[in-house]
Amino acid sequence: MSELFDLTGKTALVTGGGRGIGRAIATELAAAGAAVVPSARSTDEIEAVADEIDAAGGDALAVPADVTDPDAVTNAIDRTEDTFGSVDIVVNNAGFNPDSALGQPEDVSTDDLERVLAVNLSGAYEVTRAAADGLEDTGGSVINVASVGGLVGLPRQHPYVASKHGLVGLTKSLSLDWAPEVRVNAVAPGYVSTDLTEDLEGNERLRQSILERTPLERFAEPEEIAGPVVFLASDAASYVTGSVLAADGGWTAR
């Protein structure tokens, strides 16, 4: 069974790979044997992740890229292929949910809506499209990091929820067009303990409301999202495509 999870000889590009969930995904893919390219706008963060992977005996290359810039995306794919020979796994993890995009719909600007959609949805589309030829050649795998907000509604997070619902739809439609050569799946995390949720966890009222809604009664650790990603990237999921794996502590079971 362990051989099914072995990613030796594969190369994975992880967007938003410098911290939090993306960092955990990058290091766990490397631990499973893949060469990993963490990518993000912040060079310092992705270089630290690459150094961590190298120090553990893996292979990594930090490639800065903004997923909203098609030229930067193409460069990231080209550098990955030039260095490692192929792109076998694409993990679309880049995303954000800025404070300015939170609130009642009449209070959120069109600019904020478009900024969130550009990163969370259009960015994933650009990266996946740029990697298409290589993925089809190698029989690769795409894993989109969605959210419980892509499966259910969340109050006061309309641009984010729209972007993640769109990402779930994109996952399903791509899986149809690219089968049988390429598998396309998504992971839908619940609330995860990262630096982006520190303020949320520090607000006792909000924290308790989330825990009461979560059957496992806690936030996830980033590594608990990385595990499902490794599964979907591996031969253990060789008959899985077009699926959304909810890693949400039971949030969507209610």
Care to describe what's here?
The chain has one domain (2-248): Rossmann fold (3-Layer(aba) Sandwich), CATH 3.40.50.720. The chain is 45% helix and 12% strand. The chain has helices at residues 20-31, 43-55, 70-84, 110-130, 132-138, 158-178, 198-202, 204-213, 223-233, and strands spanning 11-15, 35-39, 89-92, 141-145, 183-189, 244-247. Strands 2-1-3-4-5-6 form a six-stranded parallel beta sheet, with helices on both faces. Helix 6 (158-178) links the parallel strand 4 (141-145) and strand 5 (183-189). Helix 1 runs parallel beside helix 2 (43-55) and helix 1 (20-31) crosses helix 9.
Number of domains: 1
Q: What is the succession of H and E elements? A: EHEHHEHHEHEHHHE
Number of helices: 9
Strand content: 5-15%
Please report the first level of CATH classification, the CATH class: Alpha Beta
Q: Can you list the strand order of the major beta sheet?
A: 2-1-3-4-5-6
Instruction: Catalogue the unreliable spans.
Output: none
Mean pLDDT score? 96
Supply the CATH architecture.
3-Layer(aba) Sandwich
Major sheet summary line = 6 strands, parallel
User: How would you classify the helix and strand content by structural class?
Assistant: alpha/beta
Radius of gyration: 17 Å
What is the CATH fold-level name? Answer: Rossmann fold
Pfam families: adh_short_C2
GO molecular function, one term: glucose 1-dehydrogenase [NAD(P)+] activity
Protein name: Glucose 1-dehydrogenase
Keywords: Oxidoreductase
Q: What is the topological layout?
A:
Blueprint: E1 11-15, H1 20-31, E2 35-39, H2 43-55, H3 70-84, E3 89-92, H4 110-130, H5 132-138, E4 141-145, H6 158-178, E5 183-189, H7 198-202, H8 204-213, H9 223-233, E6 244-247
Parallel strand pairs: 1-2, 1-3, 3-4, 4-5, 5-6
Helix pairs in contact: 1-2, 1-9, 4-6
Organism: Salinadaptatus halalkaliphilus
Family: Belongs to the short-chain dehydrogenases/reductases (SDR) family.
InterPro entries: KR_dom, NAD(P)-bd_dom_sf, Sc_DH/Rdtase_CS, SDR_fam
